[in-house]
Amino acid sequence: MRxxxxxxxVGIGTLAGGIAAAxxxxxxxxxxxxxxxxxxxxxxxxxxxxxxxxxxxxVAAVLLYAVVRFRAAPDDDTDGPPTHGHTGLEIVWxxxxxxxxxxxxxxxxxxxxxxxxxxxxxxxxxxxxxxxVWSFSYPGAKNMQTGELRVPVNRSLLLTFTSKDVIHSFxxxxxxxxxxxxxxxxxxxxxxxxxxxxxxxICTELCGLGHSVMRTYAIVMTQSAFDKxxxxxxxxxxxxxxxTAGAAVFKNNGxxxxxxxxxxxxxxxxxxxxxxxxxWAQQAKQPLESFIRSSIVDPNGYxxxxxxxxxxxxxxxxxxxxxxxxxxxYLIQSSKKG
Length: 338
Ligand code: CUA
Known about the structure:
By secondary structure, the protein is α+β, with helices and mostly antiparallel strands. The chain has helices at 3-26, 36-69, 87-116, 223-238, 242-252, 277-283, 288-297, 321-337; strands at 123-130, 133-138, 144-146, 149-152, 157-163, 168-171, 178-181, 188-191, 197-203, 215-221, 260-261, 266-267. It binds dinuclear copper ion. Dinuclear copper ion binds next to loops. Dinuclear copper ion binds at residues 129, 132, 168, 203, 205-207, 211, 214.
């Protein structure tokens, strides 16, 4: 091979590799990681991407060079000259891919093992999926139930999943992993959030008509802010004062996302107006307290005229008794005021 030919090949390869590298680096393919696990997964992604770009550059250079250099003349209908195998070349192009694929396998296995390693002082949170809501409960805080996931930064988090109906899938893009929630089994997912912030929780398995709205937030806080929140909430939801406790339960479970309640400054209209609860109870010919209670734990038992069935989630059935009582008392007080 002449020097000019080698220079041409290197030139084409550099150009092709440069374009591929620009596409890889300049487009935002992945969100900025917010967990140690996502950081490691990103490392595997870039490790594989760099290998791919180098191979692409070599193949593109040889291909483009051959297309131009060995092009047949327009009137040349003959077969090309016969060629024989090249043992040395074949050994090289077998050994190099074997090394690369083995390296990718080893790096992936190390990352998987590290990502699954649950650290000391783990925080356990139970995650319940149901068409079409996520709810979270904290076994370390009397199973306090919330509609948003709050967790401390830089601490092992072990999520245990339950599905009440179909297969859903838990996904926080910045945390880098997905976990299916399968009815009948309780899979777990280990995450170590490492960046304070508010991240979307997305259901990433088609689970019915409301699949696209089955979203909430994961809020990563400093350990001290988390402790303060957890103790504050645990104390509030179990305090003897129903308006404080009930207001906390109402807020934690995201009731205001669907219902109007002046006392909670919410004005959503997906579900019935809770300021008018006494009126609705009368309409249903039920005493106010038992009407409110059964509407929370068995929402499809009685449907408010003008509203569709199966919209109010049934996850609140599993709410600890004390929190449910507080919520009921709070709604009685607030709606009477309203
Ligand atoms: Cu739940 Cu999609």
